[in-house]
Task: inverse folding
């Protein structure tokens, strides 16, 4: 008799729990079956009429029924809560393609970005960054770099003079001399900065532009070290696949001297409009520091050797960021700057 | 410098390479070859023809119908050319051939112009007769071609043979960038010598037979030479030619001159031009009959002298210009141009050849002052080898005899300084390899040197360099010769084994990076402007006449007034850039610049000026004075300048709004200033919106900046806040109030924050309402009301003493 009654209660409870579509109805079902006045409690109250030896058995049956109903209730609750959460989230859906709230940040000048890349590469190789004066003495800009008094490079058409002795430096190479004169050897330095040449402003010229000078002096330095260093530099700056070519050239303060070309990073060296069909782009001048230059700066050329290089910063920036007119660099139109 | 491949092959007969190979190899051995141009580009199926018969075109007045013998057959060609006659030899392009250009001589089309048989006004035409322009050339180098019409060839040409061959156009012209140290390469021989060395072929100098040995007279019988200014003329050689016959040069010479872009004129002029190209030694020819007193005197001109050069122009001279004179007068400007009074004419009988070497820099400067830069001066200014001058003049005399245009007198009159000797340089074999990082064999080095005419003296282990190689002076130069012929591309790629330590950016640059970061996080973009500017900038910024900023370094040879002084104040570049943006309708633009100003200790400048890095910011739109103040403070905090910042309104910058500017003061030092731009300055820069600027003198910041930070713990005990609302006389600044609160708040006061400020109808005239939140905290324990009340009482008393009323 108990058995049948419990079966009926279990079936009714299952049915009612399934039919409960919200938490409130589910709670009502809980009260109805498990509450103090609920069906199962009523069954328990009838226990006193059961024979003593049957009570454990009946008790067990009641507990089983209770456990099953509780499980069903718990399951149903989880199901309903999950559905409710999903409904709430669905109602909060936003259009993620609406515009972002603008964070107004400024932009670094392309020259600066290129410079910082070079600084990163060379400081990683243990180079110090030093600065030299822009208003320079004739001696440091020319004479100490093996450019004697009558050299055509000294012609007024190239150099801005302040007076007979002072001028605006035409190259950052003077910083080499200042560094060597300090007498702290070995030297590994790069020196970025402004330089000046008497060129009218046009798409490829500016009377004021930037160079990055490099100098390494030590006891055992070779031309092959120069090649290795600058090859690594080119690969880091323009990509691992970059090829380099060193061509003989002439600079008064280095011997042997070279110009370095890199394979065109636009066409990979096949030849395109960007590299004027050559496949190669000239990017810097370099060479072994001329023994006479070392000597003039008080360094023994029999003991020490070194290499030096000079890179036009604008040239790198124009190439790397595909800027076709140098005037843009000094106009500072925000529509230009904000692209970097 | 341009040379043709055929001319080079005259001295390097075994040279066998493609144009591209020549260009690449020469570039890699140091003779940078910029480009090349085939002279027979797009010239196809072109032969010599003989016009046998000319008839009028039946239907066109301006056309004629020609029967042209092209060797093995006769073809019919219709032409509109005005200058053709029966019997003329012409250049004919056959059906299916190509010419390089149009008859009008415009730019040459890349693919040339194809010629096809067809009908012209109904009459068949099987080819085209060519003008010199259609052959891709010009009347400059073919002066015998007519201005309009066909190029007519001499009668001794053979119909049916290759016309391009006849014209010497199966050739390639290379263009080089010669570096300033290689004076010897401004000559065909110099380039040929490099080519021979680069391709390891034999090099043959031209054979120059001795001339004038049998002549009855010597040059010295006819002329004497005296150099008065030996600092400017290191050698003067004169040779004399008599019985001169002016005429045409032979074809081979004309072809070579043409390939170098030189117009053939007559045998004598052509010889001097030819030798200048071949040897790199400019020469001059005087009509000997015009030389007075049988003497040449080389001396400086006098200030104010004038002289008519052979181009008919009168030139002003000065005492640094070197003149070639005879016994009475000046006859030429040394190394630059001869005089009209002694020039060669058709009637010349006797010629004085001059080959001289001059002081290069003086030639360059003189040419510039006179305003006359010639082919000759362009070469002389590089400083020539005096030994080469004798070879060149002898070559010229040999050509005179070869071309049968005169009789050379015996010997030369040769006045010179001590001639350059061959430089001896120790041969340091191991040191070269050690320097280059290579393993070049000894015999390979000798092979390179031999090709370069560098000899080896085994007894002294010295290399002996030819005098034309003025660039070979020491060890490194020899190492370079070894490197470039071994091949730069074969030198290994290694990294230095250097022991230099450290590396990185100096502190100054790290602080500059902080400035850049803060500026960019707050919306400012980096601008770069020129360091030199116009002195008018000072007026634009309303600087008083005695402002120290006006003491700027002046450039003595500026590009113009706009770039004539080194900036002493950073703002002009920024304001100019803002103006550019404003005028291009860019809205709300924020720019900053990190750049130097140049402050001279004294003028005229005697020593290095103070180059001071300035951090300057400027914007218009979307902000006010306090926006800028926030950026300044963000930077200073990031740079480690935290406590002790104050602002002094007594700043007095002429270019700023008088009531909206402040000095930025830190620890008693002025770091810079900020403010709103004065409306008049705004007008000067055509800026239609309010502009806010800040300028920070970086050395002042860098000397106080630090990246050191110390953790002070996070407060364990709660803070207590009290609000203060007050009515303040407008003359009292927030800074003064805050300073007083800070003084009196003592250690318990953690923070003072203004949360409201108001002026208006509810507040009495001349006053403002201000409200602060004060935050108190004791790091050791929870604050009691009594403690706070005690401090608040002190602060309230302070307010009272400043005449400030509290609002209820």
Result:
């Amino acid at each position: 008799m108990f058995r049948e009654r419990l079966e009926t209660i279990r079936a009714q409870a299952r049915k009612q729990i399934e039919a409960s579509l919200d938490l409130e109805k589910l709670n009502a079902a809980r009260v109805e079956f498990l509450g103090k006045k609920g069906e199962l409690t009523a069954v328990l109250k009838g226990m006193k009429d059961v024979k003593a030896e049957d009570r454990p058995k009946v008790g067990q049956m009641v507990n089983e029924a209770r456990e099953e109903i509780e499980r069903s209730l718990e399951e149903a609750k989880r199901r309903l809560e999950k559905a409710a959460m999903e409904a709430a989230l669905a109602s909060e859906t936003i259009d993620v393609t609406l515009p972002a709230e603008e964070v107004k940040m400024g932009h670094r000048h392309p020259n600066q970005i290129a410079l910082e890349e070079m600084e990163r590469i060379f400081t990683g190789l243990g180079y110090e960054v030093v600065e030299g004066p822009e208003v320079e003495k004739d001696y440091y800009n020319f004479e100490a770099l093996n450019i004697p008094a009558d050299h055509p490079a000294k012609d007024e058409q190239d150099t801005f003079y302040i007076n007979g002795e002072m001028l605006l430096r035409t190259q950052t190479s003077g910083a080499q001399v200042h560094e060597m004169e300090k007498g702290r050897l070995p030297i590994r330095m790069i020196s970025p900065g402004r330089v000046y040449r008497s060129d009218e402003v046009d798409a490829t010229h500016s009377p004021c532009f930037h160079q990055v000078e490099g100098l390494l002096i030590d006891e055992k330095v070779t031309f092959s070290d120069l090649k290795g260093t600058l090859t690594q530099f080119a690969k880091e700056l323009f990509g691992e696949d970059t090829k380099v070519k060193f061509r003989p050239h002439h600079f008064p303060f280095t011997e042997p001297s070279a110009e370095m070309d890199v394979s065109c990073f636009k066409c990979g060296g096949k030849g395109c409009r960007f590299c004027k069909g050559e496949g190669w782009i000239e990017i810097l001048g370099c060479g072994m520091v001329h023994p006479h230059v070392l000597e003039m700066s008080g360094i023994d050329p029999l003991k020490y050797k070194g290499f030096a290089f000079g890179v036009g910063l604008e040239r790198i920036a124009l190439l790397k960021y595909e800027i076709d007119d140098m005037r843009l660099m000094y106009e500072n139109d925000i529509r230009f700057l904000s692209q970097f | 410098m341009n040379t043709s491949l055929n001319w080079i092959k005259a001295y390097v007969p075994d040279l066998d390479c493609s144009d591209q190979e020549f260009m690449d190899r020469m570039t890699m051995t140091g003779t940078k070859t910029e480009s090349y141009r085939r002279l027979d580009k797009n010239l196809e199926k072109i032969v010599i023809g003989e016009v046998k018969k000319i008839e009028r075109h039946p239907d066109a007045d301006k056309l004629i119908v020609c029967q042209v013998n092209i060797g093995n057959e006769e073809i019919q060609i219709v032409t509109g050319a005005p200058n053709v006659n029966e019997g003329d030899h012409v250049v004919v392009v056959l059906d299916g051939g190509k010419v390089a250009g149009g008859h009008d001589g415009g730019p040459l089309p890349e693919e040339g112009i194809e010629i096809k048989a067809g009908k012209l006004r109904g009459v068949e035409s099987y080819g085209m007769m060519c003008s010199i322009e259609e052959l891709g050339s010009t009347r400059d180098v073919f002066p015998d071609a007519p201005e309009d019409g066909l190029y007519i060839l001499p009668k001794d040409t053979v119909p049916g043979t290759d016309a391009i061959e006849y014209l010497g156009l199966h050739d390639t012209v290379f263009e080089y960038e010669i570096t300033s140290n290689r004076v010897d390469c401004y000559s065909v021989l110099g380039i040929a010598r490099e080519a021979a060395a680069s391709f390891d072929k034999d090099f043959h100098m031209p054979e120059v037979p001795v001339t004038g040995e049998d002549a009855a007279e010597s040059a010295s019988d006819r002329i004497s030479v005296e150099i008065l200014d030996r600092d400017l003329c290191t050698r003067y050689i004169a040779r004399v030619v008599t019985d001169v016959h002016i005429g045409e040069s032979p074809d081979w010479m004309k072809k070579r001159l043409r390939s170098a872009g030189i117009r053939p004129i007559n045998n004598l002029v052509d010889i001097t031009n030819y030798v200048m190209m071949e040897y790199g030694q400019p020469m001059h020819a005087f009509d000997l009959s015009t030389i007075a007193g049988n003497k040449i005197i080389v001396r400086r001109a006098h200030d104010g002298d004038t002289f008519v050069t052979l181009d008919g122009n009168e030139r002003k001279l000065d005492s640094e210009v070197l003149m070639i004179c005879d016994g009475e007068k000046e006859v030429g400007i040394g190394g630059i141009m001869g005089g009209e009074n002694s020039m060669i004419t058709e009637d010349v009988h006797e010629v004085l050849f001059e080959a001289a070497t001059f002081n290069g820099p003086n030639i360059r400067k003189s040419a510039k002052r006179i305003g006359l830069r010639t082919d000759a001066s362009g070469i002389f200014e590089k400083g020539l080898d005096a030994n080469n001058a004798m070879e060149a003049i002898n070559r010229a005399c040999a050509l005179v005899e070869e071309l049968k245009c005169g009789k050379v007198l015996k010997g030369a009159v040769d006045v010179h300084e001590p001639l350059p000797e061959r430089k001896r340089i120790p041969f340091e074999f191991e040191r070269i390899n050690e320097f280059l990082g290579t393993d070049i064999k000894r015999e390979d080095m000798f092979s390179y040197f031999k090709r370069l005419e560098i000899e080896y003296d085994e007894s002294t282990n010295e290399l002996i360099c030819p005098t034309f190689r003025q660039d070979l002076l020491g060890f490194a130069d020899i190492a370079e010769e070894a490197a470039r012929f071994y091949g730069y591309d074969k030198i290994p790629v290694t990294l230095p084994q250097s022991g230099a330590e450290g590396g990185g950016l100096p502190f100054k640059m790290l602080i500059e990076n902080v400035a850049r970061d803060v500026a960019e996080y707050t919306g400012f973009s980096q601008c770069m402007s020129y360091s030199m500017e116009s002195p008018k900038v000072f007026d634009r910024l309303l600087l008083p006449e005695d402002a120290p900023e006006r003491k700027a370094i002046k450039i003595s040879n500026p590009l113009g007034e706009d770039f004539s002084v080194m900036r002493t104040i950073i703002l002009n570049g920024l304001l100019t850039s803002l103006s550019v943006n404003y005028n291009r309708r860019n809205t709300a633009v924020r720019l900053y610049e990190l750049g130097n100003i140049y402050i001279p200790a004294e003028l005229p400048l005697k020593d290095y000026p103070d180059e001071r890095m300035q951090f300057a910011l400027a914007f218009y739109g979307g902000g006010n004075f306090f926006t800028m103040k926030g950026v300044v403070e963000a930077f200073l905090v990031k740079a480690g300048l935290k406590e002790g910042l104050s602002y002094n309104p007594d700043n007095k910058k002429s270019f700023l709004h008088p009531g909206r500017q402040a000095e930025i003061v830190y620890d008693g030092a002025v770091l810079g200033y900020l403010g709103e731009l004065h409306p008049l300055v705004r007008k000067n820069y055509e800026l239609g919106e309010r502009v806010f600027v800040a300028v920070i003198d970086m050395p002042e910041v860098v000397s106080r900046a630090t990246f050191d930070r110390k953790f002070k713990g996070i407060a364990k005990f709660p803070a207590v806040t009290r609000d203060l609302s007050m009515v303040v006389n407008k003359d009292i600044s927030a800074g003064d109030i805050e300073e007083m609160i800070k003084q009196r708040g003592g250690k318990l006061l953690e923070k003072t924050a203004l949360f409201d400020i108001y002026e208006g109808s509810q507040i009495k005239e001349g006053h403002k309402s201000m409200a602060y939140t004060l935050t108190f905290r004791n790091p050791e324990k929870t604050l009691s009301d009594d403690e706070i009340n005690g401090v608040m009482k002190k602060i309230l008393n302070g307010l009272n003493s400043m005449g400030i009323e509290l609002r209820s």
